[in-house]
Amino acid sequence: MEEVLKLKKATYHLWTFTISKMISSFGAQVYAFAISFYILQLTGSASNFALNLICSILPRTLVAPFAGYAADKYSRKMIVIVAQIATVLAIGGLLIVSYTAGLSLVAIYATTVILSLTSSFSGVTFSSSITGLVDEDRIQKAMSLNQMSISFAAIGSPALGGLLYGTVSMPVFLIMYIVASIIAVILESTMNFKLFAKRKEVIEGEQKESMLQNMKEGLRYLNNQPILKAIVWISLFVNFLFGAYLVGYSFILIEKLKMSSEHFGLTEGAFAVGMLLMSIYFSTRKEVKYPLLLSKRSIIIMGIIMGAVALPLMVDMSSVLTLSYYISIMFCLGAAMIITNTPMLVMMQKMVDDDYKGRVFSILETMSTALMPLGMILYGFLYDVLPAEAILIVSSLVLIIVVLILARPSVVRKAHPELKRINKDTSISVTASE
After folding, report:
1. CATH superfamily of 2-194+214-425
2. Which of 216, 345, 351, 400 is the most buried (most CB within 10 A)?
3. Mind listing the pLDDT tens digit for each residue in 91-105?
């Protein structure tokens, strides 16, 4: 009877988690859309736009190890709720500033830093909590529903942001984000983060590790997991090189091609539709058999798509054809990102012990974003002085080469030893037939 009740609670978690993520993501993405347009139209500089991205990424990179320590040491539910409340207060502060002194780049950058910090704590903690919220058989479903909720929000938010931008004031965007965050806090407060958790109980009188020792222990654990190490290094270089797309896409469409906010919103929505459809697919199918191999191929496809973003700068296209092209490109990129991330995250959820999840996921986040601020600065500068098409094509080629090296066949076979047996059996069959 108790097991049945736990499964029912897990089902409740699946949908509560999905809805809270969708609502909070909707508010965050409408806000991000409005702020991006505001900065680019105010300054017209890719460097200023890149600086806001740095303010979003650099604090996450620096604070992630502390977020991982906190997620493994303290109540995960409390961390998530406090982070959401801090988000509400930060946006509320920016709203007050907009009414009293007017929005400035300094106020926007400061708010972005605070949101980055709260996002790091809630993101790492939620990633660490999946196996505590749902049963093992539905981990892929939980990860896919999480991506679906983000995709639903991403479909509506750029379209709504594009329609509202220029017709309503910035405070309206801020109020939407505040309301969304408050609803998310209420939903998350009803969840039991310890339902399926397998964390060790603290023994009374046992000598406690210092924070530094605790973090070092997490690094030792990761160092003894060669597959996890490979994933971390792949994330490090891929995210750095993908800075070419993160800075360049908005800059090219808004500044170079002079695309309207409504059309830009449609391309962003197409990205979300691609994510959504692929998330639905993963939520209904069995677990992927060879996640690292699938992710490797998907990253190569993402590299090709990144280079393809430059095509309308080199080939004369009508506005309708340009819009259709970018909608198609973004749809494929959204699908490829889900194919890359979902199987790998499920694999990691099952590989990592519950007591180390916070630290391992925080190390992954730190390493995957460590070079991104440098990438933002570099690409922000390059887009202001060099042709955008050259930057994208060269970066995409380097990305593909790096992935082929870091996820070479020997690494993939180490992650999936059964591939050796399949290749061996195939070789024996061929030999016998000859």
Report:
1. MFS general substrate transporter like domains (1.20.1250.20)
2. 345
3. 899 889 888 887 778
